[in-house]
Amino acid sequence: MTGRILRWNLFIGGHLSSSVPVRLVERTAAYQLVWLETGTPMWRTDLPRRTHLRDIPPEHRPAGGYPAKTGWWPLGSALVHQPAGARHAVFWLFGRRQRFRGWYVNLEHRTHRGEDIDVTDHELDLTVAADHSWRWKDERSFAEKTGHPAYWSPEEATAIRAEGERMARLAESRAFPFDGSWCDFKPPPHWTTPSRGPAPTRTVL
Question: Is 186 a catalytic residue?
Answer without folding.
Answer: no
